[in-house]
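Reopening closed ticket. The problem is back. First fold of the pair:
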Amino acid sequence: MQKEYKTIKSIAGPLVMIEGVEGIKYEELVEITTASGEVRLGKVLEAREGVAVVQMFESTQGVGAHGSKARFLGKTLQLGVSLDMLGRIFDGRGRPIDDGAEIIPDKKLDINGNPLNPYARDYPNDFYQTGISTIDCMNTLVRGQKLPIFSGAGLPHARLAAQIARQAKVISVDNEGNMAEGGGKEENFAVVFAAMGVTFEEAEYFTNEFKKTGAIERSVLYINTADDPVVERIATPRMALTTAEYLAFEKDMHVLVILTDLTNYCEALREVSAARKEVPGRRGYPGYLYTDLATLYERAGRVKGKKGSITQIPILTMPEDDITHPIPDLTGYITEGQIVLARDLHKQGIYPNINVLPSLSRLKDKGIGVGKTREDHSGVMNQLFAAYARGKEVRELAVILGEAALSDTDLKFLKFANEFEKTYVKQEEYEDRNIIKSLTMGWELLKILPETELKRVKAEHIEKYMTAKQAK
């Protein structure tokens, strides 16, 4: 029989302290009934001898030491999962908000997931197509990888997130081990999209984008708005990842999880930490921020013996565009690279404003080449990187010395850098480029340069993909 406690001692923000408790556990759910009879849900945030600190999912207004009572439910926060979740929209606590019927679950899963034995992990090594050239060709996303996007206030990361969610595909190669000209055959795929602490305008934008493009049919959306409780914001990404684990490891689907905005999530952690009067770490964030972020990011990956996979794209806004801020800094330690958005490209009207040079996918070499994309992918990628880097150096030199002081070769690299930004980086919001088109566009740009400067592509690939097509 569950006990009811009338020993609420104090309330601090979303936290309620209850004394005289026994036999409680960390993360256990709690029902608190106010004096007016209203029932509100919370979870145990801290359990020590005779005292429980409860974090409320709803407002603590009306909860008081007199007349309120708490009942510990003996279970953790769980999510009912089913294939019927595809095509549906939920709030941060997993409740439908799309006017559809309640989900009849196949099973209920703890949102904190189960620890995965590192030995059971399979290495990420298959190509993931996003339809965006600067990602697919230059900073390739690999199935099972976690590749964050580092943005800044006012930059179009919401548009980019929606575009990736619409266009992302897991595709197969032809019998010769290369991607087919049409882009390959799509495999069993789903998107789990979680928005945390977003405005009503952003929430409506995401919902409308998924619905009008038909992407909603293969997607599960979790929307947590800025006026929702901070505790719900902390639960939202775990709801999304629990859904992804069910679809990937029990239904053999390849799942792309997009989490935006992780900065709002970290702000919620900081708010709760301050309410608990914990000793703050860097910039006021809790000292366990690294550990907490790792509990989210490390739920991506592949498992030996399982067909499905979970690939993560967390999106975060860097305060003051500071890449050394604790959130991007710690994220960079845990994830396998980053996609960086540039403010100067945004000011030039270039979308997506991906800054290619500081961006990095540490696993890109594992997802390209014969059997994954195409034989020339590695060479084209390296040559584009090298040429663009030199072109930007020449551009800076031209500002100091003037273009008249540049050599003919330097002028060609300058032209290459300008064309690269205008035609390769820049892409329409609804333009879906498959990897074959991205590689072809890369070869077209390399024609600007003298062939003697193409030192990172093989001669046979120049003959096959550039010289032969010029002859035609």
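Second fold of the pair, where the issue appears:
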Amino acid sequence: MKAINRFISSIRVLVIAGLVFSLLYIFLAVRPLGTELFLTPVWTTDITHVQDNSENEPIFPFKFNKTIGYFTESGKIISSIPYEYKGSISSNYYTTYEANAVKTPFFTSLGEESGIIQDAGFPFFDDDRIYLFLPGGLGFEQCAMDGSRKWIFEGASPITAFASSPAGAIAGFADGTIVSLTHEGIVDQSFSPGGSDYPVILGADMSDDGQYLACVSGQDRPRFVLVKKQDGHSQTIYHEWLAKNQTHQVLVHFDNSGDTVFFNYNGGVGIVSTKTCEHFHVPVSGTVISMHETTVDNLMFILSREGKTYTISVIEPFASLIGNFSFTADHAFMAVYNDKLYVGKDSRISQIKVSRK
């Protein structure tokens, strides 16, 4: 009889445990699960297939395989312009030029001549901003919409890094100097990050509001430096030594909000918060060519290259490397607009929709 009672008690315990487990399972099952990244191919088109933009869609620039031009979100190639030496293009302007460029005409995205850059040098467009790098590599100027000079800056050593934002421009030089200029061409910061045996500036960027500057500098003890402008001075708010030397220029990139800065180094990509100085590293092999963020959870897409193998890596800032995919090509490019990823491979461009579900 006692054995039967013990058996019945055991059954009760198992039933109660089963009920508790079932309730926990139901509770956990209805909790939201982590979202997954989906990359959905939408269209692929050849850059030689030029069409009219009859619906007046917004257009986006491309540059690869010795060709520049514009395409629409629906996949129409609006213009496709080959060049022999160099070409420069932005959402507003484009031009092609030779090694001895002087009096260079440039055009709007619609193909209408906007003006002529009078001085000798190599044009560079960034949205509606027009710059000209001077022969010899020691200086640059900003030009007006008609190509006339607005202001000029000349340094004492060759320019090794350059970037612009709506707030102005930043230039790094072979002697390890960083210069920040306002949109009016006034030098508001000039400093040397230092710390390395050979203090060349390898990459630099400025946040859209001009409040933060960042750079990668030096050979033999290279380092990354994040600077905040404060009361007319440059205050270093974060820096770190990098383990390996680099023999080429690198990318430094602030996100659209200016809250996060990305930089590449030999073997990976670093991520730093401008507000908290929280930092994170992601392994990325090869030479990083471009970085672009999407409106989907601020994911960052990074294009890198090793020989003819191109890899696109997807990073969730301060979380993880979500994944990557590779392809083989002679030439490639990548762009991101809102929730669309655009990948160029040799003579074709593909649109991929980005989503998380």
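Update: turned out to be a display glitch only; the data is intact. Confidence is low (pLDDT under 50) at residues 1-33. The CA atoms of residues 179 and 207 lie 14 Å apart. Please close again.
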